[in-house]
Structure formats: structure tokens, C-alpha cells
Amino acid sequence: MHRGIYEAASGMLVQETHLDVITNNLANVDTPGYKRRISATADFSALLDRIEKISEDGETKITTVLPADMPFKGREVIGSVALAAIFSEDVMDTFPGVVKTSENPLDIAIDGQGFFAVADENDNRYYTRAGNFTLDGSGNIVNPNGLILQGEGGALNVGNNARSIQINRSGQVIVTREDQTEVIGRIALFNFERPTYLRQNGNNLLTPTDQSGQPEDIEAANVKIWSGMLEASNVEVVTEMARMIEAQRIYEGASKALMTHDEQTSKLITSFSRG
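Below the sequence we write its predicted C-alpha cells.
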């Protein structure tokens, strides 16, 4: 009886989530290394029409089946229209942003695929494409939130008496002191099997998920880093504004559909009560 109301209301909720994703993208248009998120929608039946099957190798796997093939225990399927739309997921667009020149030798950009690793004081590790680094009071190379950039052997620390710092194309951090020049380490880069499924944790930081896979070291020979350059966000304002207008119009259409179904239900109740 209320299928139309459910569909319209769920459509409005989905578009609200889409708008939240788009708004977050626009808010980070000037955030270095930020990767925009893309939201996806599925019908509600895709969530329900799944059954667990034991495969030949003994593992339990989720399989999507047609509604007509579902074991409804005596109930008859009267149609294939989904009850509602749901927000399925949002994934990261890994397309690289524009690389811009800066005057800071600790601004670095990755040439190609990969992510920097940074860690907090509790050794919790996060991943990011943002290469805007500085030095803290202890000589650690840190991001704007104070998380320490990780090298192949751990945290990268240049000490307190460095006259200059250079980072070459292979990611080596070269420190010049009063009487010598030394390589203190190499910046470690990591990649994932499916990086689009990395989870955002705020502050432009990412953590792996089951879908993304675990981090894999990029071999030193394949590390390519630009020093004195910074990767910008890959958010395109025009594209996001077009997506926002589209989501708003769909929301308005679903809102009108909901009100129409509500009015029809009210008339139906009134008619039956009189009869």
C-alpha cells in the first residue's frame, strides 16, 4: 500500500547522502593530494536478494540471485520492482591531481601510483597522497597534523643541525650538515590492490579495508618522487556543481512523488471511511 511512499522517501535519503559526498569534495578542492569520492546507488532488492552458498572449496560465499529464485517459503512473487533505492557505497577516484611547483624543498609529489605512509605517536599508520611536509621541533619530517613521514626503515628524522635538506627522484632524503652530507633514509611508498576502496579517516588520511587489500611496498627502483612540487586535489568544481544540481533535482522530484502518494493515501482512507 505504501510502496510508493517508501520508494520516494528512500530516494530522498539517498540524494541527501550524495549531496554530503559532493559537499565534502567541494570543501577539499584546495586540499593538497585530496582524492574526490564518488557515491553509488543500488536498489534495495540487491541487498536482500543474496544467499549464502558453500562453494566447492568449503568457503561460504555471498551470491546474488533473482527474486523469482529466492526461497520465499510459500510467498508468491508479484513483481520485480525494488522496494526502494539505497546508498550502496562511495569510492575514491584515484586519478592524479595537477602537480604545482612550490618553494618548499619538503613539498613532494608522487610521480605515478602510490601513497605516503605517516604514523602517530602510537605507531598507528595512515596513508596519504598529500606531500606537504615540514620539520617538527625534534627534526622529524611531519605532515600538517604532526604525523611522521615513514621511510623504509621507519620514521624519517633529520636531526636539529641540518643546514639543508634535499629529496631526490628515488626518494632519498639527503641532509647537509656543517662538515658532511649524508643520506638518512629513503621515503617509503605503498600501493594497494584496489585503492579506490581505501577508507577516509579525516585530515586527508586513508586506512586500508578488506576491499582495498593490505599495503604493498613499492620497490625502491620504481619509486619516483618530485621534490619542491605538490599534488593538488583532483576535484573539478564544475563537475561537482553539475552533480550537485542533478542530486537536488532528483531530491525535489522524489519529494513531490512522496507528497502525491501521501495525498492519494489520504483520499483513499477518506473514501473508504465514508463507504
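DSSP finds three helices and 21 strands in the chain.
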